[in-house]
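The records we work with from here on pair a chain with its fold. The integers have meaning only within a learned vocabulary of local backbone shapes. A complete example follows; check for yourself that the lines match position by position.

:::
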Amino acid sequence: MGRLGGMTRPAGPRAAAFAGLVVAALLPAATGPASAQVSDLVDRSTLRVCADPANMPFTDEKGDGFENRIADLLAKKLNVPLDYTWFPQATGFYRMTLGSKRCDIVMGYVAGGDPVLNTNPYYKSAWVLISRKDGPLDGVESLADPRLKGLHIGIVAGSPPGDHLQRNGLMGFARPYALMVDRRYESPAEQMIADINAGTIDAGILWGPIGGYYARRSESPLSVVPLTKERGDPQMTYRITFGIRPGELNWKHQLNEFIASEQPEINRILLDFGVPLLDERNQPIEAGK
């Protein structure tokens, strides 16, 4: 498991996180009593964040992503300036960011994702099925629905939903979209949305924060349905945390306090970006909750 997020990274909880990045260069976690003192040795006078410079809706250099907004909120809460180190989400991300102490936090790691120490989750979401609103797939909530048989469904190559498409006999007509791209020049998610609008494909599957964001920006109304009813592995819902260095327990407690106190505002930011938020029963979280 590892960093989640955009289409620049391998997705899938088989060996890493789903819609996100496989953090391939792992550093060993600190252990023993000395590790608990690491946080005391870090200068907290600045909030140092490492992020991808071109990975909307998560982060970009202009500060327009929802993870940028949450980092802004955290910096204000801590009453410290915010400083970014930009690094593309690719192999070696951890080693070149948290591991080399260029920053002290990375937004958006799947819970349990190595090699980081995870905070408490600050949101939960799922892969989503996107189709034309009020179209023939209206009401479809699972990939086991017989209405999907024989249809062309867009999927990010190598992502977890592929196993479920295969299990339900839907892979034969599936259309793959590239996973590893340079987001400065290509956006497979936006292309998938455009293909749904054009009728080139009947539906598409994207990681919730990506699908919700681009569906909201669609020229035509689209339905975004979290796939919370799929059976078997790989899982389709994920809890998302902040990633910090192993052993920095004081820092973790401080961030957990921030999440607890600012959860309503965090939810508001996420919902403003179209992120399909889920509670612990996989029920949608709506604005104001």
